[in-house]
Amino acid sequence: MSSAAEFPGSEAEPGNLADRPYPGGIPDATVARLPVYLRALYALAERGVTTVASDELARSAGVNSAKLRKDLSHLGSYGIRGVGYDVEYLVYQVSRALGLTQRWPVVIIGAGNLGRALANYGGFLNRGFRIEAVLDSDPSLVGRKLGSVIVRHVSELEALVAEHGIAIGVIAVPAGAAQAMCDRLVATGVTSILNFAPLVLNVPGGVDVRKVDLSIELQILAFHAQRRSTARFVQATDRAAAEA
Amino acid sequence: MSSAAEFPGSEAEPGNLADRPYPGGIPDATVARLPVYLRALYALAERGVTTVASDELARSAGVNSAKLRKDLSHLGSYGIRGVGYDVEYLVYQVSRALGLTQRWPVVIIGAGNLGRALANYGGFLNRGFRIEAVLDSDPSLVGRKLGSVIVRHVSELEALVAEHGIAIGVIAVPAGAAQAMCDRLVATGVTSILNFAPLVLNVPGGVDVRKVDLSIELQILAFHAQRRSTARFVQATDRAAAEA
DNA sequence: TTATGTGAACTAATTCACAGCT
DNA sequence: AGCTGTGAATTAGTTCACATAA
Hints:
The structure is a homodimer of 244-residue chains. Chain A is of the alpha/beta class.
């Protein structure tokens, strides 16, 4: 359970167990970027880099360095002035902040293309998450092997959640079935849900739902693409008007 | 090209073509929510609802009504005081703001599970986007039918972009191949890219890249789940301390 | 009445710029 | 000499609360 103590290089923080981690809390915007930093750090570590300055880390994460430093400062003071950050140590600190020093048992509901993509999405799911089960209502999919698990029938949901102490449910079913699956997850005590179905789920307070929508980002791209072409059009029109 | 004029119910705005749409620009946070409103509006329209108040639309989009009204106010004044919004008209106005009154030709690179999930993601991709091609480097996938298109070999990328005037590229290949595909898209003139590969793409200025990361949201969930269990732990510790 | 649209107040996030540590 | 960590300044986003219009 407690893991900070034995990690190499983790200087024992003052040992009062009741100390709140990250007093004052970490801003949402920062939390949303920590996974990006973590990925960049893993990439650096794999290249054998042991120390990195905020400039370089910021560049490989696609943010500016002031923002990176401010973000990291919410976790603590883990850099060395004049030098930079120790990559391995920072990996640990960011992982710890995100709650990834433990591995979260996950159930994926839906073994369609998306569920399959998720089950095979090795890289980062493997660090911090363990896919305990993939479920589907289609009997012809039950028994097939996805990644490292066998597809089970969705009727086993409640039993599997209890058996594996599942904390996070991923909904990768069509919109029509999503709310019902969500209700069942909530009823069995799951309080963290990642929703890929294109609808807003209704949940009681205390349940944390996040969504990933494959089409929203595309629509935002369309907005900017349109803006670019409108701008060109307006420029051209203005030029024409100026000449007239 | 111009489509506003013939849409039923669209009161001719003052007809100066050079008028910038949405003067002052629409805030990013608003743009990011418009697709959610649009989806909620479509759902209402399908249920036969013709008029909706900000309270109800906000509820089905999962935001509060003040935010919804402020967001919509950036597009114009399309509600009726004392009544609400005309659903069909608002669908049109939001679509127009997002640039979805035209259909954007899209190429999907990668016909793995994710590419397949995208190609079959009927619902919203069909409104505003047309998948012109799905490409893969694996010859055993070439020729297979995905959704309504046949998988082509990735060597045809440049030709297909030119032929169909493709404006948006979707990268659904493993991380190792993503930057190379991105470079080829950029070289052929694509300026809007949606990246599903877990890395930060390098692009020249003027190219708009957005990313969808299947694991970042999961990591954010883990953060909050951890916070909840830490809070419980601290509570319990405090209680124990108080009793001692 | 009733529900929109919006200034004003507030809160969050970003960026600047530099003091302070190694 | 160089890079972190952070107050202060700025900018963006949210929420309030009510005048205004149908």
